[in-house]
């Protein structure tokens, strides 16, 4: 039996290995992590990560050919293939700070593999790859054997024509470029959303029209409060750093703008909230619906909700936050810790986050909105489309505002109820037309 060990039981390592175990029943898969609470959670009925269908996959394989352990060195030594899925955050200090990837944890894992190995290993740097394809890279001649071994694993369920073999740099740049291009589309439509608001155009109509052009296509053209997730910003900044290291300053500046527009969109949203509510939210309760960076996940890494909430807190708002999959302790941690602390592995972070008095987390949207002056929708959870907004309106302070950062609500229906509604890139409410766009 081929043995696979994955170092890192986070958002990449855990789900990836669960799928490999499901698709390859004759391969023994062990996920290891030095953070014991995470391993305990993977071995329990309450997994540390939420993704639709993940719970069923883990329960189907766990104890058969899928195992979770904190005994890192033992399982690395026994493995034929070692996947490394550790954190590679953006450096916060030193050479390349703010752009280059911090490979501290990767180097530590690599040195440990070398120290404990008594036999040949295939070491795989596991990361996200372009949709519906798989990149496998290596150096000849031994690299070809490693490539074939890895292809044999994925060939259990990935069609051979979708397994793409490249050299190392092509694989690296393909990964960075894929995320950069996707983020670029989001920033492009978000830039258009600002212009739509200024002119009276509807960004959804513009997106639909240009998406009909087969050269463009309809995906990733939904205007929003901004993109999030662990990879988009990090990979673009890494791409910027590589460009600068190769003397390509114009190319680097081009990609920087994608991140800058994303930051602008979050700031623009906060400014719209504050300026609409008589230029102050001090002491006002604001309901935050959604904190994850997208629906169907509990992942809050780089979520635009952090920037929006911090902007509102900076104006002394009182926040009541509801997300169906993000626990209170994670929200408090994200809002109270500096990004450099959040990027550290769990065992290296401060034990307890300092609770922010202006922030409370509640169990449903109705409780969040009760007594609020405004609602900010920051994640496109399906349940936010079907809420009883009449009931919500009746329990809010007046005038009652809805700021839809994901374009999920029926604007006209809410306006008929009595709400003042702002939706990204949509024609402005009569109230908002008289308010400055910048606080």
From TrEMBL:
Which GO terms of the molecular function aspect are on file? NAD binding; UDP-glucose 6-dehydrogenase activity
Q: Name one GO biological process term.
A: glycosaminoglycan biosynthetic process
Its EC number is: 1.1.1.22
Q: Name one Pfam family in it.
A: UDPG_MGDP_dh_N
What pathway is this protein said to act in by its record? Nucleotide-sugar biosynthesis; UDP-alpha-D-glucuronate biosynthesis; UDP-alpha-D-glucuronate from UDP-alpha-D-glucose: step 1/1
Enzyme class comes to oxidoreductase
What NCBIfam families does the record point to?
NDP-sugDHase
Q: Which family does the record assign?
A: Belongs to the UDP-glucose/GDP-mannose dehydrogenase family.
Know the name of this protein?
A: UDP-glucose 6-dehydrogenase
Question: Per the UniProt entry, what species is this protein from, by scientific name?
Answer: Salix udensis
């Amino acid at each position: 039996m081929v043995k696979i060990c994955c170092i890192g039981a986070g958002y990449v390592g855990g789900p990836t290995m669960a799928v490999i175990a499901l698709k390859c029943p004759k391969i023994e898969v062990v996920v290891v992590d030095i953070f014991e609470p995470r391993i305990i959670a993977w071995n329990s009925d309450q997994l540390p990560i939420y993704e639709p269908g993940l719970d069923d996959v883990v329960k189907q394989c766990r104890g058969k050919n899928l195992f979770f352990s904190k005994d890192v060195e033992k399982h690395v030594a026994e493995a034929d293939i070692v996947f490394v899925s550790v954190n590679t955050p953006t450096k916060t200090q030193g050479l390349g700070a703010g752009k280059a990837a911090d490979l501290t944890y990767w180097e530590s894992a690599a040195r440990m593999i070398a120290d404990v190995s008594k036999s040949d290993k295939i070491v795989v740097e596991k990361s996200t790859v372009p949709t519906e394809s798989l990149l496998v890279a290596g150096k000849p001649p031994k690299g070809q054997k490693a490539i074939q071994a890895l292809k044999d694993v994925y060939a259990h369920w990935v069609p051979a024509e979708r397994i793409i073999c490249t050299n190392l740099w092509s694989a690296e740049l393909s990964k960075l470029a894929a995320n950069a291009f996707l983020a670029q589309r989001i920033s492009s439509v978000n830039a258009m959303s600002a212009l739509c608001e200024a002119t009276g155009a509807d960004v959804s109509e513009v997106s639909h029209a240009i998406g009909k052009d087969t050269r463009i296509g309809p995906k990733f053209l939904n205007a929003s409060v901004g993109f999030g997730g662990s990879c988009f910003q990090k990979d673009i900044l890494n791409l910027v750093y590589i460009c600068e290291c190769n003397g390509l300053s114009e190319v680097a500046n081009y990609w920087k703008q994608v991140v800058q527009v994303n930051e602008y969109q979050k700031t623009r949203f906060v400014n719209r909230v504050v300026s609409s509510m008589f230029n102050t939210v001090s002491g006002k309760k604001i309901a935050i619906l959604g904190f994850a960076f997208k629906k169907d996940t509990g992942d809050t890494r780089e979520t635009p909700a952090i920037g929006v909430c911090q902007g509102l807190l900076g104006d002394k708002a009182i926040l009541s936050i509801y997300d169906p999959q993000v626990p209170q302790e994670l929200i408090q941690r994200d809002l109270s810790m500096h990004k450099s602390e959040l990027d550290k592995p769990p065992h290296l972070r401060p034990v307890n986050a300092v609770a922010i008095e202006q922030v409370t987390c509640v169990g449903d949207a109705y409780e969040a909105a009760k007594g609020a002056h405004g609602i900010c929708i920051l994640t496109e959870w399906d349940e936010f489309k079907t809420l009883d907004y009449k009931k919500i309106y009746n329990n809010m302070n007046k005038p009652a505002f809805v700021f839809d950062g994901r374009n999920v609500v029926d604007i006209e229906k809410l306006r008929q109820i009595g709400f003042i509604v702002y939706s990204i890139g949509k024609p402005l409410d009569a109230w908002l037309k008289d308010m400055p766009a910048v606080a």
